[in-house]
Amino acid sequence: MKAKLRDILKSQKVIVICSLILCVLFLITIFAPWIAPNEPIAVNLTHKLQQPSLDYPLGTDHLGRCTFSRILYGARISIGFAMLIFISALSIGLIIGIIAGYKGGWVDQLLMRFGDGLMAIPSLLFVLGFVGIWGAGLKQVILGLILVQWVYYARVIRGMVLSLKEQNYITAAIISGSSTWTIMKKHIIPNVLPSLAVMGTLEMGWAIMNLSSMSFLGLGVQPPIPEWGAMIHEGKSYIRTHPALMIYPGLMIMLVVVTFNLLGESLSERFGVKRR
Amino acid sequence: MSTYVLKRIITIVPIFLLTTLLTFGMINLSPVDPAEAYFAAAHIQATDEMLEQKRHEFGLDQPLFIQYVNALIKICQFDFGISYVTNKPVWEEISSRMPATIQLTIGSLLIAILVSVPIGFLAGIKKNSGIDHFSRFLSFIGASIPSFWLGYLFIFFFSVKLDLFPVEGTGTWKHLILPSVTLAFPLIALYTRLLRASVLENLQESYVLFARTRGIHEKIIMGKHVLRIAISPMITGLGMNLGNLMTGAVIVEAVFSWPGFGRLFIDAIFNRDVPVIQGYVLLAAGLFLISNLIVDLIQLYIDPRISRKERQYQ
User: Fold this and answer.
1) What is the pLDDT of residues B247-291, one digit of tens each?
2) What fold characterizes domain B97-271?
3) Could you report the predicted ipTM of this complex, rounded to two decimals?
4) Which residues cross the membrane (chain A) (predicted)?
5) Which of A224, B86, B114, B311 is the residue whose CA sits 20 to 30 A from B195?
């Protein structure tokens, strides 16, 4: 047992390391209020633009807020909302993909052609347009990202359902009188979930990156809420004198996105799941 | 071959219709009343009468279907309406900003191709060598680095610290370098990766073995045959990525204060200038579709096997 575990650790180094980093990040998102040395939104103008010290491990920003605490809380926002986007898009994609794949016929045609139309517009552009028309704000950005994202899940799931439908055991289940709902729950969903988990890992990086891009443009998370993209937006005016304000949050975005991407890549290589 | 080209052109029409329907639906489902947005953007306190009159002027009192057909006819004439803020036609606004954005995108495409073709190709030929590891590193970093952050890093190192390039603005070729490289970075990552994978795949093909047994020089096999065919998925990637390039340009233009239509679009979002937003989205979608068409046609020219396959199906 021990030897086996060591084997796994050795052969799947990348997966193990990435998972460890992600675990630490998840712990940070959960325990941010206990780890952070200062309030992330407490303004203290007498302490503005300070160098790193014991009280402020990474210094302070132009309003005297603790950069380190803001980055910790930022993990909450970025990872939390990326999860929300991922889970919502996945649920919508799962439902629509299964309906399209299982029912077939005109329902399938209608849903998939609608998806084609959505995909003809570059995804971030669609989100920008959506936010433009519905107004800037976190809610709209998240809704927009979910709206462009479910199509990819739906397509993959539909493809999987189509090939599963041909399997003998599904036919057997139909003949033996299982209801459609039971077939879904017992046979189809458990079969598509592993691939979706791999896909989802790759999509998390995408969601975090785009959410922070939107916040950077001033369309997503609004100040004073700490979010990495918004922090870069606020820190950019001090690039000449205090570049650290913009460097740290960017490093965090990169670290998280690289980790998710590497993990997703390794998992998809390991389990033979195709990227979109 | 000409029937294939014709067929490919015709498939664009329904997809573009769908996108117009989507944008139209998005506007009509939104809680924003165009008449109210119009007066809000112009900073006018509107009375109910004025709103009513504006709604009539915009044709909002007509049935939805008629509104859509009218909008469609106008779009076909490149008439996207009039900007609420500047009161100029949207098309005029966008086309006046177009050269700056085109300059930027062409610059970054050139950089991306010049960097990724040699690296991707060599990485594919010499698998697991130093250059191969470098290419894998490059494609990972390039895909994961937020472009707005990269832009500021460039500004910090090359403009503030080394004073090599201007921080922002346009004018000389020096202004173009930093924004183009920033925009090119994710493309370099993608193209290097695509080309490497495709070279590796092609080396397994029987035509390479055949050429080798005929005693053709390795350099000729690689340069003339493998590279020519292996580059094909990269060209598809190029077409698929033009949309990302356009949204990437929005962010890069914001970082470097580049006066292209990305900036116009961001301003329009903040002002709720619905016609400009709609015009930009439709135009970008149209450009995206057309560029994909062109890419397909280029591929047809480069890889003769595609047209042969098409003929078999007919």
Assistant:
1) 788 888 888 888 888 888 888 888 888 888 888 888 888 888 888
2) MetI-like fold (1.10.3720)
3) 0.81
4) 14-36, 77-102, 114-134, 140-157, 188-209, 245-264
5) B311
